[in-house]
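Task 17 of the worksheet. Students: predict the tertiary structure of the chain below and write it out as C-alpha cells. Keep your answer in the requested format; marks are given for formatting as well as content.
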Amino acid sequence: MNAANPSLPSSRTAGGALYLDNAATSWPKPPGVTQAMLQFIEEIGANPGRSAHRASVQAARIIYETRQAVADLFNAPDPLRVVFGHNITDALNQALHGLLLPGEHVITSSMEHNSVMRPLRQLEKQGLELTCVPCAADGTLLPGHVEDALRPNTRLLAFNQASNVCGTLLPVREVGEIARRHGLLFLVDTAQTAGAYPIDMQADGIDLLAFTGHKSLYGPTGTGGLVIGERVDEKNLRPLRQGGTGSRSEFEHQPDFLPDMLESGTPNTAGLAGLQAGLAWLAGQGLQDIRRHEEHLCALLLEGLAQIPGVSVYGTGQASRQAAVVAFNIAGMPPSDAGLRLDEEFAILCRVGLHCAPAAHRTLGTIPDGSVRFGLGAFNTEEDIIYAIRAVQQLAREAVK
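Model answer:
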C-alpha cells in the first residue's frame, strides 16, 4: 500500500488530478473489477435464474458467490440472507420502510446521512415516533444516551458506523449490546466502513447491515445491499417491490423466502461480477492492512492540517477514532471557493458542502455552508497527503491577506 508498489493503481487521474473523493465513491478500482465486468458482458451475458441453460447458470453462480463473499466479510450467518439492491440507499429504505409500523419508536443519532434521516422523517409523518440522540460537537456518541432514550414501544436502533462528513466512529458494538439487552433490532449504515474497518455482525450485535459496493468494497456504482441477521423474521419485512424473481413463477404472489422476496427484477449481474472482484481484491490485500494504511494517511493529514493557521478540522482529530474521512474549513474562504480552487489550481478532487448530511453539520457547527472533505482510500500515498497539505496551506495563507 505505498507509492513504491507498481502493482497498485495510481490515485492520479489520466489528466494528473489527485483523487481525494473516496468517501463519495472509491477510485481507482482494482484492475480485476473492470475485467470481471467485461468478462460477464462479453462471455456470459445471460439473465440469472430465468433460464436453465448454461449461461444463465453461470450468471446465477456469480451472484451466489458474491453473496458468499459479502457474508464472509461481515461474518453473516447465511449468504442467502444477503439481499442485493441498487445501492445502500435502496437497502436502508428496504429496512426502514419494510420493517417499521406507525406507533413504533426508533432511535437514531444527530450524525446520520439523509439516506437514514429522510426515510425516518417520512415514516414520522405516518405515525412513527423518532428520537434523534444528540452527539457531541466532535461527532462522538455516548452509548448511555441511547439507553436513556429507550421507550416501551422502541423497535429499532438505527445508526451509521462512521460519519460521512468527518469520519467519527460511533460505538457500534456498545449500541449492539444495548439492542440485545433490551430485545431490540439494530440497523447499521456501513457506507464509510464496509471494506475499510472490521465489521462482525454477530460480535457487534448487528441485525440489519446496509452496505454499498462502490466505496471501500471497490466495486462499481449501482451495487449494494442489505444483510439480514437471523434475529429478523423475514415474514415481518414488507418488500418495496414485487415482480419476477425466477422462482415460484406459477404463483402470482411474491415469494415469502429470502433473498427472492426482496429481489424482484433482473439484477445488475455485471455490477455484481465487478463487486465480487472488488471483494476478492480486498480479501487478498487484507482488511487490517488497508485499515492500517488509511489510518496512517489520515493521521498524517490530521497532523498537517492542525498546524496550518486559520484551518479548522472537525471530528475527533484522532485517526484511530475515525474512518479516513477528514472535514475542514479555511477561515475567510467559503468551502465552495476552497473546493473550486483546489480543483482548478492544484488539481485536487474533493467534495464540499453539506454532504447530504445536514444533521451532522448542525452537530459539528458547520451549517449553513458545510465544509471541505478529503476522503482517503487504499490507493492514496504519503506523497498525496503531503501535496494536499501544502495546497491547503497556500490557500490558508492567501485567505488571511
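Marker's comment: The chain has two domains: 32-284, 286-399. The chain is about 40% helix and 15% strand.
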